[in-house]
Amino acid sequence: MNALRIPITLIGEEGCVFEECVSVASIQPPDTRALPVETATVSGRFESMGGEYLFRGHVQGEYEGACVRCLELARIPFDVEVAWVFAEGPEAVFEEIGHAVELDSGSAPDIEKELEAPRAFQGHDINLDPYVWEEVVFAQPSRFVCHDDCAGLCPHCGVNRNHHACHCADNDTQEPIGNRGLAVLADLFPELAPKQTKE
Ligand SMILES: [Zn+2]
Ligand SMILES: [Zn+2]
Question: Considering the chain, what is the average pLDDT of its residues?
Answer without folding.
Answer: 81
